[in-house]
Specification:
Blueprint (H helix, E strand, L loop, with lengths): L2 E4 L5 H6 L7 E3 L2 H9 L5 E8 L3 E2 L1 H9 L2 E10 L3 E4 L6 E4 L1 H6 L1 H7 L4 E4 L3 H10 L3 E5 L9 E5 L8 E9 L9 E7 L7 H10 L5 E8 L7 E7 L6 H13 L4 E12 L2
Parallel strand pairs: 1-2, 1-3, 5-15, 7-8, 7-9
Antiparallel strand pairs: 3-4, 3-11, 5-11, 6-9, 6-10, 12-14, 12-15, 13-14
Helix pairs in contact: 2-3, 7-8
Bound molecules: prephenic acid (PRE).
Length: 267
């Protein structure tokens, strides 16, 4: 099975992807990963979806609304960031925007004067630190060594910090089996109670919502695409019935069933 995730080597996405394959290829954007899976170039793609401190990875959500792919598994991993540099003489800190945000409190109190630079991934920031003594990176502590010191560990603002990843597959691998399901709904409508109408079919059938997120549709201001996760499988009658109701409400838009899946926690 060929697998693609966010690179270079040493990202948290890479750690999550190792739970499904020992060999992994890399891209430097989430959209490029989703595109490569939708195209059938890869059997699986692993992308971050949401973090317990910083919330949604918006590029992933937008790519899921744009491309036709399936979600076949969820991987949850603890995120424990380290500060890595050649020494203390740096004035710039480079990392993924999510990682910089997850360490905001630490950076404000310990390095208030450093320039913060958002780069494609934590591993890219670490690579910059390895090449340039004026740069520090934030990433997993295992990226240290080879001239790079781990200056501080566990610098995230909450020790419970964790990120949820989706394992994506081409559409034909979509499965109705699993304890959780994900949908993307574009109602293309606007009236009082629309969101209530979209959620009630789940409440009426005792289906627990585990995430609801709205993203701008890009069509016009105030127009949204809704990402909905539920703790029920597509194989269940109650899920099929709820979706039939939602498809009716969204008849001027669309409903995408990304699939059902189980969850794995990896360190
Ligand atoms: O840059 C990385 O190491 C990634 O795998 C990306 C990512 C993200 O997109 O949120 C994954 C986990 C962490 O939350 C920080 C960054």
């Amino acid at each position: 099975m060929n697998v693609v995730t966010l690179g270079p080597e040493g990202t948290y996405s890479h750690r999550a992807a190792r739970s499904i394959s020992d060999t992994v290829d890399f891209r430097e954007s989430v959209t490029a990963i989703v595109d490569a899976v939708a195209d059938g170039e890869y059997d699986r793609g692993v992308v971050a979806i949401e973090n317990s401190i910083e919330g949604s990875v918006t590029e992933s959500l937008d790519a899921l609304a744009e491309y036709e792919v399936a979600v076949v598994k969820e991987v949850v991993t603890p995120i424990r960031h380290a500060l890595l540099a050649q020494g203390e003489e740096f004035d710039r800190i480079a990392s993924h925007s999510q990682a910089l945000a997850q360490c905001r409190g630490y950076l404000d109190s310990e390095y208030p004067d450093a320039d913060l630079e958002a780069v494609a991934s934590t591993a890219r920031g670490v690579q910059m630190a390895r090449d340039d003594a004026s740069v520090a990176g934030i990433g997993h502590p295992d990226n240290g060594g080879d001239g790079l010191e781990v200056l501080a560990e566990d610098i995230q603002d909450q020790n419970s910090n964790a990120t949820r990843f989706f394992v994506l597959a081409p559409l034909e691998d979509r499965s109705p089996a699993g304890g959780k399901s994900t949908f993307v709904v574009y109602p293309n409508a606007d009236y009082p109670g629309l969101l209530l109408d979209l959620l009630e079919p789940f409440a009426d059938r005792d289906i627990n919502l585990t995430r609801v997120e709205s993203r701008p549709s890009g069509e016009r201001l105030g127009d949204y695409v809704f990402h909905i996760d539920v703790a029920a499988g597509l194989y269940e009658d109650r899920t099929a019935q709820a979706l039939a109701e939602i498809e009716h409400i969204a008849e001027d838009g669309w409903v995408r069933r990304l699939g059902s899946y189980d969850s794995e926690h990896v360190v």
